[in-house]
Design a protein that fits this description.
Helix content: 40-55%
CATH architecture of the largest domain: Alpha-Beta Complex
Largest sheet: 6 strands, antiparallel
Distance between the termini: 77 Å
Order of helices and strands: HEEEEEHEEEHHHHEEEHEHHHH
Number of domains: 2
CATH class of the largest domain: Alpha Beta
Radius of gyration: 22 Å
Number of helices: 11
Strand order of the largest sheet: 1-2-3-8-6-7
CATH superfamily of the largest domain: Aminoglycoside phosphotransferase (APH), C-terminal lobe
Shape: globular
């Protein structure tokens, strides 16, 4: 008699999460499993490994809505993150439904989802933790700078016209303004207006500085989200969690990306940390952009981070709204400090 059991490619996310939260889900039998939720993923920390399961979400900038789309994205995540963290990103692992109707990580069965398996990094070695502890050494910064310099030197150059590069920022400023003025944002609208005007004014008066970056072929396929919490200061430093899901978000000027890192380090009280890496890069490639451009990049990135903090208010299941609103205010203060210096 034929087995007429229906396929279950639509296994609910809650069922997958419940399974992956159990120690028995993993072949290496971890002592415990810790779960971390973000807007787009669930991460399961199982002893020395981390497994990332992408949520079936759709936004304007990504589509994880289908099993096939998530599997494709996992492959991209593995490939792109191996550029800066080759020994961290290990493999793509299928989550399967066995013949007896039970879920299993790897092996034979109907594939109902896909996870990225990574080596778990030591938390105290992450750059944000090291800055807070005052434990960032000069040799560690030199190694990190060398890693990033080599990465940018070999990154694929993006074909972006000068006008399009300038327009990208004009559009981004408008998008940031809309997000920061959302009815639920609860932010100082006068400050948002001031920052918006100041950044638009920079693009209008100094747009040639932006256009020159594209004209000089400075725009590359970069990391896309170079924050301290994505940097690990191991003996051989690694950088994780690039923006694999949208190539446009990774097409950046290295000075922009490193100014972003510097701004984030400043927020943690480690201004000299990010500034040192940026200086090392500029000296190594003989690229010394005007300070006003660096300040613009920092102000724009701080405004963007404020908008993303407000975006988190729509996801009450992750963290308290007060935390994210306060973080947005801190980023807006940072943006204000930078617009005052161009």
């Amino acid at each position: 008699m034929l087995n007429m059991r229906p396929r279950r490619a639509d296994v609910p996310l809650a069922e997958k999460v419940a399974f992956l939260a159990r120690r028995e889900a993993y072949a290496h039998a971890p002592a415990s499993v810790e779960m971390i939720q973000t807007h787009m993923s669930w991460v399961f920390l199982a002893d020395g490994y981390a497994y990332k399961l992408k949520k079936p979400v759709r936004y304007d900038f990504l589509d994880f809505g289908s099993v096939a789309a998530r599997r494709l994205n996992c492959g991209r995540e593995l490939e792109l993150n191996r550029r800066l963290a080759g020994n961290v990103y290990q493999e793509v692992v299928p989550l399967v439904l066995r013949g007896d109707g039970r879920l299993q990580l790897g092996g034979d069965g109907e594939v109902v989802d896909t996870l990225v398996k990574m080596r778990r990094l030591p938390a105290h070695k992450l750059l944000d933790a090291a800055i807070r502890a005052g434990a960032v050494g000069g040799n560690e910064l030199e190694r990190l700078a060398a890693l990033l310099i080599d990465f940018y030197r070999h990154a694929a150059v993006a074909q972006v016209s000068p006008a399009a590069y300038r327009q990208r920022f004009a559009q981004g400023i408008r998008v940031n303004e809309l997000g920061l003025k959302a009815p639920y944002a609860g932010l100082d609208e006068e400050l948002v207006d001031h920052l918006t005007r100041s950044q638009h004014d920079f693009v209008a008066r100094h747009g040639e500085l932006l256009e020159a970056r594209a004209r000089d072929a400075r725009i590359v396929d970069a990391h896309g989200d170079l924050r301290p919490e994505h940097v690990c200061l191991e003996a051989a430093p690694v950088v994780i969690d690039c923006l694999e899901f949208n190539r446009e978000f990774r097409l950046l000027d290295p000075v922009d990306e490193l100014a972003y890192l510097a701004m984030e380090c400043e927020q943690l009280g480690g201004a000299e940390v990010g500034a040192c890496v940026l200086r090392r890069y500029c000296d190594a490639v003989a690229d010394h952009p005007p300070p006003a451009l660096v300040m613009f990049y920092k102000a724009f990135r701080a405004s963007l981070r404020a908008r993303l903090a407000i975006w988190h208010l729509a996801d009450d299941g992750i963290v308290s709204t007060d935390k994210w609103r306060q973080r947005a205010r801190e980023y807006l203060a940072a943006a204000a400090s930078h617009v005052a210096h161009w």
